[in-house]
Design goal:
Distance between the termini: 108 Å
Family: Belongs to the BRX1 family.
Keywords: Nucleus, Ribosome biogenesis
Largest sheet: 11 strands, mixed
Shape: elongated
Organism: Ramalina farinacea
Helix content: 40-55%
CATH class of the largest domain: Alpha Beta
Radius of gyration: 33 Å
GO molecular function: rRNA binding
Structural class: alpha+beta
CATH topology of the largest domain: Rossmann fold
CATH architecture of the largest domain: 3-Layer(aba) Sandwich
Pfam families: Brix
Length: 342
């Protein structure tokens, strides 16, 4: 069992004990515990539009397996009337919506919304790698809860704070969900760099340190201390004593092994309402993939046009010199055989 789960379970047990003691005090004072407001349950509705590829469908299935508090629905027929997603969320008793919109069979846009009042974030998904493509050795229990790790840059601007809150509410599995298992064995990392949100998923792997490795570390430390001197030997002994106090006898090592999927999100627009309303934030640096493809086509067309113009110029120059058959007349010189022996 990972030590992360042990620490979390210990904290939750302490919290439950504190809440039970406060509840007893409240009942003795004459106030009931039912008056305390309960946190709303977080449920996520996951669906896509028509036109998604098989890779997009595999990503949707991977996210659905990672989120036990989510509900998967059929494809949405329309791409313009997105306000219908609020009715679907109300029908399935979901307060978060994760909608994948496919365009031209190439581009994938992700809509994250807090139904029914908003806000909504539209993002462009790039660098997609599903779990089946990566073939990583890591694995996690189905239905377990993840640890969410956010970069410190998410607290720099209000827009990033809002995106962080939405990501935490969608990807953070609540402890009172129906399909969860009481384990925390994987971690989801969210990093903001180059104007994009980089998302990775890792397994928290706990392995026992063998006695041979511990002996090897001790011998390495002893060799370093003998080569150094008396002061370094004293420092190493102090560190060893502190380490023995802090670490238990059954030493374990924690490591992160990537599971997948991995993808990158580029924020485009933040709307005030749920799939509608005024624009609160707009990313001015975002360039649509249609514009990128158009620029590539224009650059190729420019090179082709330059080659054609060069060919026309060469043909005209050869025609003026009479080097092309059937085009123009070549001037005969005075020393040519046809002129001398005419």
């Amino acid at each position: 069992m990972p030590s992360a789960y042990k620490t979390l379970s210990a904290s939750t047990s302490k919290g439950s004990a504190n809440t039970s003691s406060t509840a007893n005090l409240s009942t003795t004072n004459g106030t009931s515990s039912s008056s305390t407001p309960k946190a709303p349950r977080q449920r996520v509705l996951i669906l896509s539009s028509r036109g998604v590829t098989y890779r997009h469908r595999h990503l949707l299935n991977d996210i659905y397996t990672l989120l036990p508090h989510s509900r998967k629905d059929a494809k949405l027929d329309t791409k313009t009337k997105l306000y219908q997603l609020n009715e679907l969320a109300e029908l399935y008793n979901c307060n978060n919506v994760l909608f994948f919109e496919a365009r031209k069979g190439k581009d994938l846009y992700v809509w994250m919304s807090k139904a029914p009042n908003g806000p909504t974030v539209k993002m462009h998904l790039q660098n997609l790698h599903t779990t089946s493509e990566l073939h990583f050795p890591g694995n996690c229990l189905k239905g377990s809860r993840p640890l969410l790790s956010f970069d410190s840059t998410f607290t720099s601007t209000p827009a990033l704070l809002l995106i962080k809150d939405l990501l935490a509410q969608i990807f953070g599995v609540p402890p009172n969900a129906r399909k969860i298992k009481p384990f925390v064995d994987h971690l989801m990392g969210f990093t903001f760099a180059d104007g994009k949100v980089w998302i990775r998923c890792f397994e928290i792997r706990e392995s026992d340190v063998s006695k041979a490795e511990a002996r090897k570390e001790d011998t390495d430390n002893n060799s370093k201390t003998t080569a150094g001197g008396g002061e370094e030997e004293k420092k190493s002994k102090k560190k060893k004593k502190e380490k023995e106090k802090t670490t238990p006898r059954d030493q374990t090592e924690l490591s992160l092994v990537e599971i997948g999927p991995r993808f990158v999100l580029t924020p485009i627009v933040i709307l005030e309402g749920s799939f509608g309303g005024p624009v609160v934030y707009e990313n001015k640096e975002f360039v649509s993939p249609n514009q990128v493809r158009r620029d590539l086509r224009m650059s190729k067309a420019g090179r082709h046009r330059a080659r054609n113009e060069q060919d026309v110029e060469d043909k005209g120059r050869r025609g003026d010199l009479g080097l092309r058959t059937g085009v123009g007349k070549r001037e005969r010189g005075e020393l040519e055989e046809r002129v001398l022996f005419a």
